[in-house]
């Protein structure tokens, strides 16, 4: 297990623990891969999990586009990428040449990959080539149709205090809001990487899109952004041919209301966990294994048990 975050401050009460609900919190608490032991290690103990290949590759893809600082490693101190594509386009109004985009991706993926322990021989270069294929193919075509409005926009929406009078917030950070073509309003966008084709029915659509839509309606930082349209830009790093596609989600009041109710339930579950201390592992999750869980060692010491019928 990686060390705690350097500036970590553990929650001291149920109010601290449930004050900020991010979209990822919902998946951490409820769903097929939710694990309450993992939630405790991350959100209460403040431990980091070791860098994972999929997450590191996704981070590199984000950094190439939006110029975000690297986040992997036990004490990430990587500088911000100065010439991410959309940061440069926002400043100059011009599209970065394809060769320069590829140079940036090469730089940031090399940095992210240096933290990984599970890359097989030749895998780093193979994934780099897949990124180059995607950049030179559909990604550049999509990027040229976009004019960035805002990058890395954070929001924090205050909710109605609960029966104990405790305040709580919906929180998030939007990769980018952008104008597409001749649209008169910018819309919300998020970049994803995937190992296989990406379905419009995946859980992200049901959680992230309405979560950020609520942020757009209620936060001054996203004033003027169309709250009813969210675009997932998905890079599929398929072995035969890497590709990029856009998946547009239309959001309405029913989706937003459903999300608010879901979030309130998640908060109640978190409060119950805090009260009882029953942060138990989900042994039925497909991510519950030595190779897929960064908290495996601590969980093994604390809980033992079986994972899909196998003694641990």
Please give a handful of descriptors for the protein shown:
single chain; 312 residues; alpha+beta; six-stranded mixed sheet; two-stranded antiparallel sheet; 10 strands; globular
Structure description:
The protein is of the alpha+beta class. It is built from ten helices and ten strands. The strands form three sheets. Strands 2, 4, 5, 6, 7 and 8 form a six-stranded mixed beta sheet that branches. The longest helix has 24 residues, at 253-276. The model is unreliable at 72-76 (pLDDT under 50).
SSE inventory with pairings:
Layout: E1 2-4, H1 14-17, E2 20-22, H2 23-29, H3 36-44, E3 47-48, H4 53-66, H5 85-92, H6 98-113, H7 123-143, E4 146-158, E5 169-180, E6 187-194, H8 203-218, E7 226-236, E8 243-250, H9 253-276, H10 296-303, E9 306-307, E10 310-311
């Amino acid at each position: 297990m990686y060390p705690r975050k350097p500036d970590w401050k553990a929650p001291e009460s149920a109010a601290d623990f449930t004050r900020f609900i991010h979209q990822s919190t919902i998946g951490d608490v409820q769903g097929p891969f939710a694990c309450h032991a993992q939630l405790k290690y991350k959100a209460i103990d403040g431990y980091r999990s070791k860098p994972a290949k999929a997450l590191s590759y996704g981070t590199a893809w984000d950094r190439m586009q939006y110029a975000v600082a690297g986040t992997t490693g036990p004490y990430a101190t990587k500088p911000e990428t100065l010439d991410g594509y959309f940061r440069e386009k926002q400043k100059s109004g011009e599209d970065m040449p394809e060769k320069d985009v590829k140079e940036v991706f090469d730089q940031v993926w090399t940095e992210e990959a240096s933290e990984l322990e599970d890359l097989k021989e030749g895998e780093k270069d193979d994934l780099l080539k897949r990124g180059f294929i995607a950049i030179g193919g559909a990604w550049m075509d999509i990027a040229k149709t976009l004019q960035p409005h805002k990058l890395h926009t954070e929001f924090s929406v205050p909710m109605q205090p609960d029966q104990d009078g405790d305040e709580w917030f919906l929180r998030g950070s939007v990769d980018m809001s952008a104008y597409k073509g001749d649209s008169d309003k910018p819309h919300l966008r998020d970049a994803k990487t995937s190992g296989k084709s990406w379905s419009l029915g995946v859980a992200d659509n049901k959680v992230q899109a309405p979560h950020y839509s609520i942020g757009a309606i209620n936060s001054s930082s996203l004033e003027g952004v169309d709250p009813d349209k969210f675009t997932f830009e998905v890079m599929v790093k398929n072995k035969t041919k890497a590709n990029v596609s856009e998946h547009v989600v239309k959001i309405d009041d029913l989706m937003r209301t459903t999300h608010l109710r879901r979030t309130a339930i998640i908060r109640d579950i978190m409060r119950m966990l805090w009260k009882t201390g029953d942060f138990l592992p989900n042994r039925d999750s497909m991510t519950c294994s030595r190779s897929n869980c960064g908290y495996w060692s601590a969980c093994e010491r604390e809980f033992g048990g079986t994972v899909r019928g196998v003694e641990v």
